[in-house]
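Much of our argument rests on the idea that a fold can be written as discrete symbols. In the encoding step, the backbone of a single protein was reduced to a row of integers, each denoting a local shape. This step matters because it turns folding into a mapping between discrete strings. For completeness, the protein is quoted in full, as a sequence line and a line of structure tokens:
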Amino acid sequence: MSVSSFFASQELRALLQMAGVCKQLRTAVQQVMGTVGLWLHLDETFFTDSDSQGQMRLKFPYVTLTPYIQRLQFVRCKALTDSTILSTVFSCPALTSLVFTHVEHINDDTIEQILVRFGAQIQLLSINCCDKISSATLLSIANHCSGGKLGVLGLAHLDCVSDNSLEPILVHCGKSLECLNLTKSRVTDRTFEMIVLHCPRLNGLHLAEVPTFTVSGLIQLMSEKGTSFFTLNILQCPQLTVSIIPAMRRYCPHLRTRSDDLEVFVNTLMANYLYRVKGRDNDQAATYVVLVHPHEVSSFLWASNEQILHLSNHGEIVASNFGTQLEACELKNLLNRFDLDEDVIQGLQ
């Protein structure tokens, strides 16, 4: 139940603000909110202007809901000071989920103070795109969230996330982790080894835009943990090509039924690296399919505008025949080699 939906009715909001509303109704509403828990999605419009001490406070009626709030999300809050963040969080004793995204003034000390108080009960913690966060915050997470309740951890777009800074979290909190977001971090195959060793329950892993792990390291991770994965996001990792797809299908059988990650990945790679080229060979029309190396895509696209294009300079010719369309046997060979869906291969026609 969200605050926005609960207060969507102007009549209900006005009723709850009336001083004379009956005690039974107010108690009933409070019981409902206490049972289902509330998710409060905060931006700066939820707060008053700064007072004489420079403090911003939650507006009415939201301030009256804090005893029932279990999930708190701060998004794009540039003006909120660390003291305002702390006072808001500390007013929510039932808190189990906490999200910070693009929060300018959140820092290591603020996170430390929050986790000292709430770390043992936090089930979801996500700190994304917050420039003042360093590896000290990761150490605080390891120190204060090791009680076995932290199931979802988001550390996306943080420069401080590396193998060394992540290790204490995986060692001390790994047994309870079910989903880990490391988007645009600097982790390598060493983190994969620690995940296998310390995270038996992990079923979701986000590695989008991470260029520092190897293909062989990812395949090894999938061979040991793949059957547990419902989510594996490896989009926009420049070291990966369609050659990884057979391993994903072999080791991660649940991705296709529980998420669209695999199909998105397949189609993205097909669009980026596998190209159909029409040309001429010995004065006859010919059709080629070229697997272009990721680092050669730009030069390949530039060269494709020239009169003469040497395909082998940019990648591997994986299919070819005379004529303007690929023959059925060539499509079948592509289907078998890359273990792709037939409708994706047909898209090359």
